[in-house]
Amino acid sequence: MKKVIWLCSWYPSKVDAFIGDFVQRQAFAASNFVQVEVFHIAFGSLDEVTKTIVNENLQEHIVYMKHVNKIVDYLNYQQAHQEFYNNYLIRNGKPDLVHVQVIMKAGTVALQWLKKHKLPFVVTEHYGIYNLKVQDSFVKRSFWFRYFTKQILKSSSHLICVSSSLAEDIQQFAAIQKIDIISNTVDVSLFYWKEKYKNDKFTFIHVSNLAEVKNPMGILQAIEKLFSIRQDFCVRFIGSSNTEFSALASQKKLLNNCIFIEPIMSYAEVAQANQLADAGLLFSHSESQSCVVLEWLCCGLPVISSAVGGVVELINTSNGVLVEDNNIEALIDAMEEMIHNYTQYNGNEISKKACDTYSYATIGEKINKVYDEVLIK
After folding, report:
1. Considering the domain 202-357, what is its CATH architecture?
2. pTM of the prediction?
3. How far apart are CA 196 and CA 347, in angstroms?
4. pLDDT in tens, 289-332
5. Domain boundaries, the chain
């Protein structure tokens, strides 16, 4: 069985339980086919090392470091990776290859290991900064960030992107040898079609922290206008940390009437909430792909979304409606259309197709094929 080290810039930890949770799910998927050891450094207030044996083919190594300054942090970062590699050699022998999840800054280590240990590496990029519309876009990053990103991409054996849209955005800035499109993955043992009773009110669901990129105020405007026309719907917002949104919804007397804001939930609880809803609602300015859309589809929910980024590759007339970015009237029309024509969607069929496409087994097999291509060269 192939042995692969995953160097992860983003990964769930005690510092942030949600950052890179989609990377963790890809690790679960890959471990069906190869031996994976994940290494991630989380900067914060903790100073410890944890090791978790997830299954017989997946181990997670998280090193918690305290911030000192940029130079010391960088040196400690590099040293911790080298110590892990030395220990890995003692336990397992030389790995077959390295998989970088999110280019910066774990990719700088892979670049060094390629030169020092002749270890080939592949990169999966999730970051949406290559879209010029986002506030913190790639062109606004420091010279060194841009330089090393390009060097890492140039030296990688394969670039894996979660959508064709993201791949096209990245190619604006770097020449890349080989690109593969491999979606994010979903635990379909949790997210699946479940027959439900008809809700008293048509229930939309939105799952995010309601950061600016999710266009929360655009969604709020659409809900306010639609609620002035009809009161037979509601929207559940799960995981929001946007206090301005909550305050404005309350001021407009929408909170707990047609807007219901709920705290962060576990992955399994989100699945249950999806299964109780009628449709997913997304109105982002930018999306690399959107894990929540995958999860809604696996639960058999039709989806309304702005036509941005990788979401466009997921939604068609059989499973939802796409609207123009930031077009409030178009969103209102789509919500009305969804309520009126809901019976045209076959939830069981939507779920079956999505579960077949985004399961751990399917995505893990695709990742393994990339590894095979790299090692055959």
Report:
1. 3-Layer(aba) Sandwich (3.40)
2. 0.94
3. 11
4. 999 999 999 999 999 999 999 999 999 999 999 999 999 999 99
5. 3-185+359-376, 202-357
**Per-residue pLDDT tens digits for 115-150:** 999 999 999 999 999 988 888 899 999 999 999 999
Structure tokens at 2: 């192939």
CA distance 95 to 85: 9
**What average pLDDT score do residues 100-111 get?**
96
Query: Is a pLDDT exceeding 90 seen at residue 176?
Result: no
> From 3.40.640.10, 3.40.50.2000, 3.50.50.60, 3.40.190.10, which CATH number describes the 3-185+359-376 domain?
3.40.50.2000
Question: With helix as H, strand as E and coil as C, how does the chain read?
Answer: CCEEEEEECCCCCCCCCCCCHHHHHHHHHHCCCCEEEEEEEEEECCCEEEEEEEECCEEEEEEEEECCCHHHHHHHHHHHHHHHHHHHHHHHCCCCEEEEECCCCHHHHHHHHHHHHCCCEEEEECCCCCCCCCCCCHHHCCHHHHHHHHHHHHHCCEEEECCHHHHHHHCCCCCCCCEEECCCCCCCCCCCCCCCCCCCCEEEEEECCCCHHHCHHHHHHHHHHHHHHCCCEEEEEECCCCHHHHHHHHHCCCECCCEEEECCCCHHHHHHHHHHCCEEECCCCCCCCCHHHHHHHHCCCCEEEECCHHHHHCCCCCCEEEECCCCHHHHHHHHHHHHHCHHHCCHHHHHHHHHHHHCHHHHHHHHHHHHHHHHHC
Straight-line distance from the first to the last Cα atom of the chain, in angstroms, rounded to the nearest whole number: 18
Which stretch, 132-136, 192-196, 216-220, has highest mean pLDDT? 216-220
Calpha distance 40→367 (Å, rounded): 20
* CA pseudo-torsion sign 181, 186, 192, 198: negative
Structural contact between residues 188 and 358, judged by C-beta atoms closer than 8 angstroms: yes
Could you identify the residue written with the tokens 């709920």?
262
The phi, psi pair for 14, rounded to 5°, reads -70, -25
3-185+359-376 and 202-357 agree in CATH topology: yes
